[in-house]
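User: Can you recover a sequence for this backbone? Please restate the input before giving your answer.

Assistant: Of course. Working from this structure:
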């Protein structure tokens, strides 16, 4: 299904995902408590949500993200040390934050950004030496700053974005060829620039 999505064939991707869901449901009927299968079910809803979001279908995307969050959240509650489920939960909250900001609901977006940050911090507690949680947390903070800007709260955005930019700069410096980290840093710098501009214009042009 992800290949069809990559090729821009949305309807084919959705049809393939329906087939994959049927296969997964059949497997789970035989092994309902299998952790990997349950995690795959949450992942399937996550990618379905992303496909809808990519096409601007906010309502079905929101519903699918909600299903992914419910499934991953249940797994995390039952298996609190399962880092993979924590990472999936954080990603679903993070992407739903983006969707809600784009759909003009930054207050709702901010809640999901904060939950993504919380999930990444729980991931850190279990894998303190890993870098995935750090990049993920920084990216979630950037999303939260975007939501704050959309709410007209440039001061909060400016106050929170700095540490995230510093983390992403440090990570990019350790691996300049990592295009994903470069992209995260570029987004963070863009948000930081907007926050600076907005606070400079606050109070009739006086710097906040």
């Amino acid at each position: 299904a992800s290949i069809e999505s990559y090729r821009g064939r949305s309807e084919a991707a959705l049809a393939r995902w329906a087939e994959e869901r049927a296969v997964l449901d059949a497997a789970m009927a035989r092994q309902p408590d299998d952790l990997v299968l349950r995690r795959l079910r949450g992942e399937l809803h996550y990618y379905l949500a992303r496909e809808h979001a990519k096409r601007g279908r906010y309502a079905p995307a929101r519903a699918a993200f909600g299903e992914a969050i419910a499934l991953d959240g249940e797994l995390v509650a039952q298996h609190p040390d399962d880092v993979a489920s924590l990472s999936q939960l954080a990603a679903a909250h993070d992407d739903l934050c983006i969707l809600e900001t784009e759909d003009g609901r930054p207050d709702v977006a901010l809640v999901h950004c904060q939950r993504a940050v919380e999930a990444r911090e729980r991931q850190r507690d279990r894998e303190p030496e890993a870098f995935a949680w750090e990049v993920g947390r920084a990216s979630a903070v950037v999303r939260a700053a975007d939501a704050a800007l959309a709410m007209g709260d440039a001061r909060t955005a400016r106050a929170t974005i700095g540490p995230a930019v510093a983390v992403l700069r440090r990570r990019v410096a350790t691996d300049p060829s990592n295009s994903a980290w470069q992209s995260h840093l570029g987004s963070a710098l863009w948000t930081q620039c907007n926050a600076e501009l907005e606070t400079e214009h606050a109070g009739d042009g006086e710097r906040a």
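That completes the design. The CA atoms of residues 172 and 181 lie 6 Å apart.
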